[in-house]
Amino acid sequence: MAARIGVVTFPGSLDDRDAQRAVRVAGAEPVALWHGSHDLEGVDAVILPGGFSYGDYLRAGAIAALAPIMTEIKDAAGKGVPVLGICNGFQMLVEAHLLPGGLIRNAHQQFIRRDQKLVVENADTAWTNAFRRGEEIVIPLKNADGGYTADAETLKRINGEGQVAFRYAGVNPNGSLDDIAGLTNEAGNVVGLMPHPEHAIEPGFGPNTPEAMRSGVDGLRFFESALRALQLV
Q1: Is residue 107 part of a domain?
Q2: 46, 173, 192, 230: which could join 90 in a potential S-S bond, CB 3.0 to 4.6 Å?
Q3: Which residues sit opposite 45 in a β-bridge?
Q4: What CATH number did the domain enclosing 201 receive?
Q5: Of 85, 72, 62, the residue nearest 190 (C-alpha)
Q6: Is residue 94 part of a domain?
Q7: What angle do CA 118, 141, 145 make, to 5 degrees?
Q8: How many domains does the chain have?
Q9: How many other β-carbons are positioned within 10 Å of the β-carbon of residue 26?
Q10: What is the model's pTM?
């Protein structure tokens, strides 16, 4: 039986269908979940997708972090269920205190859209085990509130304990401290990042590579990693 991975839709979600497709391409069954529900429907993992939940009022992800389904996601995460937050989903995870720090307006106050190089810093999580530590990958990025921030003590801790999952390479697109593009929790089952792996899963639709235009599929390994992790549980 295929693993079942839930994708939560919030008011303002834009990439929920893309995340569902990525789950399907990786070989799992996508399950559509609703922000107002308290039922995770027995899924094996959860994805919080990109978008502008609740119009980014207050702060990006702040209202979504209080949605009814987040109560169930926090409980599931505490029990080891893999949870991935992509862009707006990453913002939700920090607002819900499932990941440390915060995300603020991009440097120069601009919306940024680009194919972004990342360095894999932690390849031992539920969502990164198909990568190698130190590997450079290319994942599309599109955000206005992607600047990672944290106090000095938090930065020292997450760097020292291996909680930085990805760093920006080549250029820091949004002013994130320490070039941080993504984080993991201490247990390694919760991962959040600003770039969008669901937009790099199929040849012909991903980032350009030296081999061919739009041929990049580095994002697919995020979802394959989850399947590998679930087989070990």
Answers
A1: no
A2: 192
A3: 5
A4: 3.40.50.880
A5: 85
A6: yes
A7: 110
A8: 1
A9: 21
A10: 0.96
